[in-house]
Each structure stands twice: as structure tokens, then as C-alpha cells.
Amino acid sequence: MHRDCVATALIGYGRLSIGLVEKFARDIENLVAACFCPRCGRGPQGEWASASMATSDGCIAICDACATQETIVELSTGVVPPLATWPTLNRRR
Ligand SMILES: [Zn+2]
Questions:
Q1: Per DSSP, which regions of 2-93 are E strands?
Q2: What's the pLDDT band for 22 if we cut at 50, 70, 90?
Q3: 73 CA distance to ligand 1 centroid (A)?
Q4: How many angstroms is it from 40 CA to the middle of ligand 1?
Q5: pLDDT band (50, 70, 90) for residue 91
Q6: Which end of the chain has fewer CB atoms surrounding its CB within 10 Å, N or C?
Q7: What is the pLDDT of residue 93?
């Protein structure tokens, strides 16, 4: 993943404070580093085969189930679900 692309995608969502942008970027980074799917939290697994469409350059690898879900939503609504709405980031702790 590229930190800049992730930050740009999060800021582009337009509804997050800078603190939350930084927290979400860190959360994604930690999940990737621990080999979990950063979108749904599945894993750990060596490497995820699909690239998320949520960043401009597809720099975040996600699991097949998430990739399929992104594609279905994109086809039916014309919009890729934003990074900021990923289940892992919006989990209540
Ligand atoms: Zn996933």
C-alpha cells in the first residue's frame, strides 16, 4: 500500500477529521502488516490476490470476497465503496 494514496482516498471522502484520516491510515497499515484483509479483517493469510478499487492506483490488496463485493456495488451503484466505510475501520471496540 502507498500511504499517500490511502490518505488521499480517505481525505477525498470529505467527512473525516485529520485525526480520523490518520487513525484509519494507521489501522489499514497495521492490518496489512499483520496479513489480515484490511477491508473485512479476514486472515491472517500470506498474500491477498485482489487489488481494492478504493484507492486511485489499487495499491491495497484485499481478499477475493471483498473484491467481489466492491465490484458488485460498483456495478449496481456506479460508486466504489469508499475506504472510510470499510468494515474494519468502523468496527465498534
Ligand atoms: Zn476481505
A1: 50-51, 61-62
A2: very high
A3: 15
A4: 4
A5: confident
A6: C
A7: 57
